[in-house]
Amino acid sequence: MEAGAPGRRAAATAAAPGVADGWHRIGSARSCTSPDGDRTEEASIATGLKPASWAYAEDFVPEDEVLKAARARAAEVDATPIGAGGGATLRFVAALLDARNVVEIGTGCGISGVWMMRGMRSDGVLTSVDIEADHQRLAKRAFTDAGIAPQRVRLISGAALEVLPRLTAGHYDLVFCDGDKQEYPQYLEQARRLLRPGGVVAIDNSLWRDRVADSGVRDADTLAIRETLSAVADDENFISVLVPVGDGLLLAQKR
Ligand SMILES: C[S@@+](CC[C@H](N)C(=O)[O-])C[C@H]1O[C@@H](n2cnc3c(N)ncnc32)[C@H](O)[C@@H]1O
Question: Which of 6, 79, 83, 243 has the lowest CB atom count within 10 Å?
Answer without folding.
Answer: 243
